Amino acid sequence: MSLVIGLTGGIGSGKTTVANLFAAYGIDIIDADIVARQVVEPGSAGLRAIEEKFGPDILLTDGQLDRATLRAAIFSEPVLKEWLNQLLHPMIREKMQADIMQSRSEYCLLVVPLMVENNLQTMTDRLLVVDVEEALQIARTQQRDQVDAEQVRNILASQATRQERLAAADDVICNNGNGDDLPQQVAALHQQYLALAGLDK
Predict the structure, then answer these.
(1) Which residues are annotated as a binding site?
(2) Most CB atoms closer than 10 Å: which of 9, 42, 104, 200?
(3) Helix (H, G, I), strand (E, B), or coil: what is residue 70?
(4) Could you tell me which CATH class the domain 1-27+105-201 is placed in?
């Protein structure tokens, strides 16, 4: 099994950019957001359970999960949201674990936005946090998602604080600049991780 490096950061921190830089070195990327979609694909046990609970209207005409309808259904119903989390979180964790076992690169990157919040760093050997100032997070997310600052602040409030993430981190990438220095930061960490995996010969 590969050395597992966890990658996390708040919204708008640049996790995807950083993950792509590691991928350029041939490192396997296991992305929780992608896994979360895979466990509810047509034909999956996850989707069958959701359809049984919410009825056929929860599906689009092509048999895919209607995410907007599901979001609306659980938005004002904490009990349903809890049911969904109880169903999907173990499935997502199991699939991520299976993907880690199948990884063939020198080490693999487990990308989880809510890593610290859900205590998923227990699945990793080291935790890498992409750190960014809050004002920048707000500005970048507003620009990317075309939403107002208030909405971004609400999302930030539901996530771990910068301090909580940094306290859990083994390694930190600072992304307060324009991103020009990210390749150098990733290159240095890549060498460090190869050394940890015993492959820096």
Answers:
(1) 12-17
(2) 9
(3) helix
(4) alpha beta
